[in-house]
Amino acid sequence: GRATPEKATITADATKMLDPCQLKPESMETERIVSVLDETIAKLEMSSLIPRVVDSLDRFAAVLGPEITNSLSEHQKLSKEMEHLLASSEQGATVRAEGQRGCLCLLEQHLKRSVRNVLRLLLANPSLCQTLKSEAWVRGSPAEGFIKAFREFRNFMLERLLSSPVEEEGKIQLSLQKTTEAITALQAELAAAVQTREQEVHQKDKMIKDLQTSMQDLAKDYKAGNQQIKQEGEKQQAEELQASQTRCARLQHDVQQLGAQLGALLLEHRASELPLRKRKRRVEMEIVNWIQKYDTDMAEKQAEYEEVHAAYTEEKAQLSLLMEKRAVLLQEYSQIEEEHRICQKKEEEALKELATKNLAATRIQALWRGYLVRSLFKPKKKKKMKKGKGK
Prior knowledge:
By secondary structure, the chain is mostly helical. The protein has a domain at 28-163. It has helices spanning 5-17, 28-55, 57-64, 66-91, 94-123, 126-136, 142-161, 165-390. Helix 2 packs antiparallel against helix 7 (142-161) and helix 3 packs antiparallel against helix 4.
């Protein structure tokens, strides 16, 4: 209907009364009730975003994190199972549907638990909730209408909780008075609309009568035109039938000529086909001979290959034995080399020690000889010194 001034005034007053910025809780019970309603609104908003986020899970995976992404994946699986089970229960028989009702109840419980788990994880991160609202919110959806109505219910409950019985009664009287005025205005509008409707119906009846008269005239014109078209069609049909008979005779003559040409071409082609057939048989015999020769050569090559393969297998076995022996000999050789190196080192140390001992013995002998020589010349020197003193 049309918006009247009375209805606009009622809407403005209701909006002013339900403005949450002007309503402040005054008791603990009121705060608890309002907090429960606000929490319910937040959960409704996030639960309405879950289907959109699940449909674009790859795009939101980086924002959500691994834990929430895994929970949403499980929720998506449960939702698909629920849809599949509902579709099968609708299409299946009655007995089968009764058997699936228990599975449906169990799956519904799992789905509810999954939704609670996802909401718990999302509401624990307010910044993530704000990001999802700005990116995944669908305007004009049924969920948004329900959430809007629930917000109005929350404001209405807050206004009721903050109003005293006297204020409530006064507001009810005021609302009844405004409602009565609005009803009166609407009744006047209804009467005017009914009168306008009757005038429109009268005009439509007159228009219908005029249309019926014009339809009768059209029917008469249609019959006359149909008769004329029928006569013209019969005349045209006779002309086309005569032309068709003439064209059929001409086509029949062309068919006879083409049949004679076809017979002559067949005879000519059969005459040229005979040498081609002989050549084909000769080529087929050559192909058979080449195939037999190929089979014989391949059999010889296969026998030769088997002999070579057997010799190769035997040589490979001998080679493996020789490699094993070589490994053993290499190990023994390395041990011998190590022993030879140790012996050589010992011999070098012994020669070094012997050279040191020889040098030491040479020096000792030189010192000893010098000592003996000094010992031999020392008594003679003393005797000479004593003789000189006596003189």
